[in-house]
Design a protein that fits this description.
This protein is an alpha/beta fold. The protein has two domains: 172 residues, Rossmann fold, CATH 3.40.50.720; 99 residues, no CATH class. The chain contains eleven helices and twelve strands. The strands form three sheets. The chain has a seven-stranded parallel beta sheet with strand order 3-2-1-4-5-6-10, sandwiched between helices. It has a three-stranded mixed beta sheet with strand order 7-9-11. The protein has a two-stranded parallel sheet with strand order 8-12. Strand 2, helix 2 and strand 3 form a beta-alpha-beta unit. The radius of gyration is 20 Å and the shape is globular.
Length: 314
């Protein structure tokens, strides 16, 4: 098959591209260039310089003569809603005149909800726009939280022995490893379902924050606490805006947390049609997270304070 991969040098796209090439498929790799793209070209990928995120390159030619395509959007935290709308329109404009008959789009859990749900709403907008492609078989991969996002809590745990976040401690959330997403994407791209629209919730395991800190504590041999951060508190908002982020990011975070904690965005059960994925949170923490923790847990001089550190400190 001839497959076009958007974001081919990213965390998911690079793994996906390598897998497709190893299986003998032709891959056109979209990137802004650099050594990561050069490496994929050395493996047999066809390079294509450009970006749907910023609208550069001859994008209408990217999907030409391709059988299938993988789509994803890189978040612009300074223009969250507008960015997803703009990129989705660029996808549609380029695909509707192409030869592509099968599209796999990486979206998010909660994208089926039409409401003010923060970051989930952006993916709802993406899916709605892509659904205009009536002549293309379309699969939405509604991904869970990335297990790799837990790396942001290595320093807070090393320094303060706790995680601070806005999710309620007992809310069960699905998590997924990036490698599992890439492997599932490769299967879906190379074995089309022949259906116009399919939505797959992609998560390996439902884990609450209480569960997560217990798993981490057991692996590193010391207790890890969890603190709920009420991000609607004026003190928290002020600190964030002055030191860590933009008003747009703040509003997105507030709406996202509200959607999770209120149940507006619900997480379907592990046995309700979700594809089986192999990586459990326990295995990820043991085999991937813990080695990184031990490599980065030593005290640092003049460590810059991130929002994650600020939320965890005494």
């Amino acid at each position: 098959m001839k497959i076009a991969v958007v974001g081919a040098t990213g965390r998911i796209g690079a793994k996906l591209t390598r897998m497709l090439l190893s299986e003998g498929h032709q891959v056109r790799a979209l990137s802004r260039g650099g050594s990561a793209l050069d490496e994929l070209v050395s493996l047999g990928a066809e390079p294509f310089i450009g970006s749907f995120d910023n609208g550069t390159g001859e994008l209408n030619a990217f999907f030409r003569d391709m059988d299938a395509a993988f789509l994803m959007v890189k978040t612009d935290w300074n223009n969250i809603e507008g960015h997803y709308r703009a990129v989705a329109q660029r996808f549609v404009d380029a695909l509707k005149t192409s030869d592509v008959k099968h599209v796999l789009s990486l979206t998010s859990m909660g994208s089926e909800v039409e409401a003010k749900t923060g970051h989930f709403e952006s993916f709802h907008q993406l899916e709605t726009k892509l659904n205009e492609l009536t002549s293309i078989d379309l699969v939405h991969l509604r991904a869970a939280w990335f297990m790799e996002n837990t790396f942001a809590w290595i320093r807070p745990i090393a320094r303060y022995g706790r995680i601070g976040w806005s999710c309620l401690p007992d809310v069960k959330m699905p998590w997924v490893a990036i490698d599992d997403i890439a492997e599932l994407a490769a299967r879906e791209l190379t074995h089309p379902r022949g259906q116009h629209r399919v939505a797959l919730e992609v998560g390996s395991q439902d884990v609450s924050m209480h569960d997560l800190v217990a798993i981490i504590g057991a692996e590193i041999g010391k207790p890890v606490a969890y603190r709920v951060i009420d991000i609607r508190r004026e003190e928290v908002k002020t600190v964030f805006l002055v030191r860590f982020g933009t008003p747009e990011r703040w509003q997105d975070d507030v709406l996202t947390a509200d959607a999770m904690n209120s149940g507006l965005v619900t997480f379907h059960g592990q046995h309700e049609g979700r594809p089986h994925l192999p990586t459990t949170m326990e295995a990820f923490i043991r085999n991937v997270w813990k080695p990184s923790y031990h490599a980065n847990a030593a005290p640092l001089e003049d460590e810059p304070e991130t929002f994650a550190l600020w939320c965890a400190k005494d």
